[in-house]
Write a structure and sequence with these properties.
Rossmann fold, globular, alpha/beta
């Protein structure tokens, strides 16, 4: 699974296919990071959220983790600050430092994994989060209620997953909601916003106690 080939084209593809909706979803809970001093951005891509976060939080220590070296290079261009670290790693095999970050951000990341890999990924990031950490998650989703919005979302997902499997070797074949895994890791849903008739979802989760063993 590699997004290196998409890195030079990701920004214009996002603009053509999604307009400003994805960025609006990414920024939906930006204010929740105002008190975090250490923030981990996973799968940041070319750095649109990183640039907005750095502009709002110039004093925060940010860490950007991505499997794609090409995406990391583009993200680095948006934030040359010495207070930002860049790590190239496969999240499925990464050994996370324990309780290192006040907040975790995963935009369009968790929906890339199969159920078994998602188990490992959520457990890894939960280990990296501090006992009172916030976790911001933006992902494509399927509306729970029957209707045209649900049918539309399923059709979009089928096209999207098929295209990304061809272009990047994407592991997932369909969406696996992470909610139960987050709850098991000690997080509770604090806020949820939906966009584009339920096709896109921006969540804020919070952990309010000791990290899970």
């Amino acid at each position: 699974m590699s997004f290196d080939t998409l890195a030079p084209h990701y920004r214009w593809l996002e603009t053509v296919l999604a307009g400003r909706i994805l960025q609006r979803a990414r920024l939906a809970h930006l204010a929740a990071l105002d008190s975090a001093q250490t923030i981990l951005l996973v799968g940041e891509g070319p750095g649109r959220f990183l640039a907005a976060l750095r502009a709002r939080r110039p004093e925060a220590h940010l860490t950007v983790l991505d499997q794609s070296a090409a995406m990391l290079d583009r993200a680095r261009q948006t934030d040359p600050s010495l207070r930002t670290d860049f790590i190239q790693a496969d999240l499925r095999n990464w050994t996370a430092p324990v309780a290192a970050w006040d907040a975790i951000v995963t935009h369009c990341v968790l929906d890339c994994f199969s159920p078994s890999s998602l188990d490992r990924v959520v457990a890894t990031l939960a280990t990296a989060a501090r006992p009172t950490a916030a976790w911001i998650i933006t992902d494509f989703t399927v509306p729970p209620q029957p209707g045209w919005q649900r049918l539309r979302a399923r059709a979009v997902h089928a096209l999207m997953y098929g295209a990304f499997r061809v272009a990047t070797g994407l592991e997932a074949r369909c969406l696996t909601p992470p909610d139960a895994r987050l709850t098991a890791a000690g997080f509770a849903l604090a806020a949820r916003k939906t966009f584009n008739h339920g096709l896109l979802q921006a969540d804020l989760w919070r952990r309010n106690g000791p990290a899970s063993e």
